[in-house]
Amino acid sequence: MATVGFIGLGNMGRAAARNLQRAGFDLVVNDIRREAGAPLEEHGATWADSPAAVIAQADTVFTMVFGPAQIADVVRGERGLLAGGAAGRVWVDMTTSSPFLMRELATEISAAGGFPVDAPVTGSVDSAIRGDMILFVGGTDEAVAMAQPMLDAVGVTRRVGQYGNGYVAKLVNNQLWFIHAAAIGEAMVTAKLAGLEPDTWWAAMKGGAAESFVMAHDVPSIFAGHYDPSFRLALCLKDLGLIDGLIDAVGTRSELTDATYARFKEAGSRYGEDAGEMTVCKVIEDDAGVELRVAGDWVEPWKVQHPGEK
Q1: What confidence category does residue 154 fall into, taking pLDDT thresholds of 50, 70 and 90?
Q2: What pLDDT does residue 308 have?
Q3: Which CATH class is domain 168-308?
Q4: Where in the chain is the domain with CATH 1.10.1040.10?
Q5: Is 192 known to be catalytic?
Q6: Is 184 exposed, middle or buried, given 0-12, 13-18 or 19+ CB atoms closer than 10 A?
Q7: Which part of the chain is CATH 3.40.50.720?
């Protein structure tokens, strides 16, 4: 089995790295927080002090960090992947970032003899834990084929063309996700004020034209009142900034996206950027003076277990 490196051990990255271990790959890990590696080291992972040290020990390196500035540093930094030597190595990036930056980084990795693959993900922390999150995969056929056994260990591959297209797919995916999330708050509060209780509303909406991943997966976090802190408003706002940049670059209309961005900014200002993603709906709740709580056994996404560990 190949040795795999993983850089970036947040909620999603740590879950993906653990699934690589379950699949039998030897793992070398790195994060800006030394303590983030401990749960993986308990299962046999090796800690490395820098991205350069990771790639020196691994055949394939996954990265999943906050955004463009961080991934640029991981690749180009003094102790980055290029400094460690990319020749013959596969680099799989799962960061939500700019497709324009990533095409530059891919060119640099390729020029150094490496094989870049973009595989940003969609889903949630529970899908990352289970290993069934969707990967938007771009790259050459050769590079993707080299990465495929590792990609299969962490999620479901959807090929979207050449390198960089994965980031485009991820950004427009999140564009729709955030619009749905903001709109659901308005719909739920309207229904509540008009006499339709949230649990009845939710049961009636599912399976119809209003259905979406957000409807099915994220509404229980509103019912529970925690609004899913496993994905923070800070990440939503970072992604919306990237979406805004992509829209500007291609020059299209974006009134719905602009309104959604403004609503998320309002939620971040009111409740802090560490609040959960669905706090965007709490803005409407609070302004209407209603609560959308529903009693029930709503399992927090971050507490889901991998099927093999139940």
Answers
A1: very high
A2: 80
A3: mainly alpha
A4: 168-308
A5: no
A6: buried
A7: 3-163
**Which residue is it, tokens 């150094």?**
112
Kind of pairing between the strands at 133-137 and 46-47: unpaired
| Bridge partners for 145 per DSSP | none
Whole-Å CA distances, 79 to 50, 53, 136, 163: 6, 8, 28, 24
Tokens (6 digits) for 143: 């590079």
CA distance 34 to 19: 20
Say how far apart CA 309 and CA 302 lie, in whole Å: 14
5-25 average pLDDT score: 97
Q: What is the pTM of this model?
A: 0.94
- Judged against a pLDDT cut of 90, whether residue 1 lies above it is answered with no
pLDDT digits (tens, 9 = 90+) for 43-101: 999 999 999 999 999 999 999 999 999 999 999 999 999 999 999 999 999 999 999 99
Q: How far apart are CA 74 and CA 52, in angstroms?
A: 8
The distance of Cα 239 from the centroid of its chain, to the nearest Å, equals 10
Give, rounded to a whole angstrom, the gap between the first and last alpha carbons of the chain.
26
CA distance 9 to 34: 10
Angle at CA of residue 225, ends 223 and 228, nearest 5°: 95
Sheet architecture: strand order including 115-118: 46-47, 26-30, 3-7, 60-63, 90-93, 115-118
Q: Does the pLDDT of residue 300 top 70, yes or no? A: yes
pLDDT of 310: 60
pLDDT in the model for residue 309: 76
Q: How far apart (Å, rounded) are the C-alpha atoms in residues 272 and 83? A: 37
DSSP H helices in the chain: 11-22, 38-41, 51-57, 68-76, 81-84, 99-111, 125-130, 141-154, 165-193, 198-205, 213, 219-224, 233-250, 255-271, 279-288
**Assigned token pair, 183:** 């709109």
Give the homologous superfamily in CATH for domain 3-163: NAD(P)-binding Rossmann-like Domain (3.40.50.720)
